[in-house]
Amino acid sequence: MAIPVIDFSKLDGKERAQTMAQIANGCQEWGFFQLVNHGIPVELLERVKKVSSECYKLREEAFKKSNPIQLLNKLEDQKVEEDAIKRLDDVDWEDVFFLQDDNEWPSNPPEFKETMKEYRRELKKLAEKVMEVMDENLGLEKGCIKNVFSGNGEHEPFFGTKVSHYPPCPRLDLVNGLRAHTDAGGVILLFQDDQVGGLQILKDGQWIDVQPMANAIVINTGDQIEVLSNGRYKSVWHRVLATSNGNRRSIASFYNPSLKATIAPATPKEEVHVLYPKFVFGDYMDVYVKQKFLPKEPRFKAVAAG
């Protein structure tokens, strides 16, 4: 079983209705799908791969001294019986840093900043196009999701990019690449490694690989899209498995509501049964940071009671 692959360029042609239906199915049945022919130049994606890999090489020594490696070494040094070694269930085998408009970015390699600025501009535009498709498929006014995320235009939606590498791991039995979770925010756009796999989603009780695919952008929906759609589009559990060979690159961009935005089901008038509470996104994030790797339903309850 493979997650849907959708040709985004067909939205502009004779196959528009079919493509809209494919995206609706991707949102409703999967919560994850891959976009090809999405309009982001391949040449730009190649530059993003290059500067990200070069940036990791400069960070590699620091990763070797990081918490996951130290904890793993400590476990192996204990020389206890093999079956008595406890898994490291509360760490991730991941080198990671974040890019936002207002934080400090790596200054090396020299092309990193300009390349990633250009990439983020393109990704943000793509996110807004995807949200407009969701608006239409959900029977909402065009621009509804973006409008909610910006607090009716009063605030800037959050747009952040997480640059991760998952280096080869010597003990796959003891550590996760990234623990299973759902994403807190809105629409997530992932440019993942096209050689090294590891990303999986939970569908119908089974973990399914998100197959590496050159120049595709993986889209997934976060908790706030679940609320806005009144449960029609669910945020989906996903994880990253550590691998023993290959250094997996993962560049995830998050188009989230402003922390000040009020989120509630934006259902068409004929749908009267509201399944989710109304809350301020910042309050939800206060709960999420403490409960990210736990079931999501109590998060909605906690923020409703707050």
Automatic annotation (TrEMBL):
GO terms for molecular function: 1-aminocyclopropane-1-carboxylate oxidase activity; L-ascorbic acid binding; metal ion binding. InterPro entries: DIOX_N, IPNS-like_FE2OG_OXY, IPNS-like_sf, Oxoglu/Fe-dep_dioxygenase_dom, Plant_2OG-oxidoreductases. The keyword Metal-binding applies. Pathway: Alkene biosynthesis; ethylene biosynthesis via S-adenosyl-L-methionine; ethylene from S-adenosyl-L-methionine: step 2/2. It catalyses: 1-aminocyclopropane-1-carboxylate + L-ascorbate + O2 = ethene + L-dehydroascorbate + hydrogen cyanide + CO2 + 2 H2O. Keywords: Ethylene biosynthesis, Fruit ripening, Iron, Metal-binding, Oxidoreductase, Vitamin C. PANTHER family: OXOGLUTARATE/IRON-DEPENDENT DIOXYGENASE. Its EC number is 1.14.17.4. The keyword Oxidoreductase applies. It comes from Elaeis guineensis var. tenera (Oil palm). Residues 157-257 form the Fe2OG dioxygenase domain. Its cofactor is Fe cation. Belongs to the iron/ascorbate-dependent oxidoreductase family. This is 1-aminocyclopropane-1-carboxylate oxidase. One of its GO terms (biological process) is ethylene biosynthetic process. It is an enzyme of class 1 (oxidoreductase). It comes from the Eukaryota.
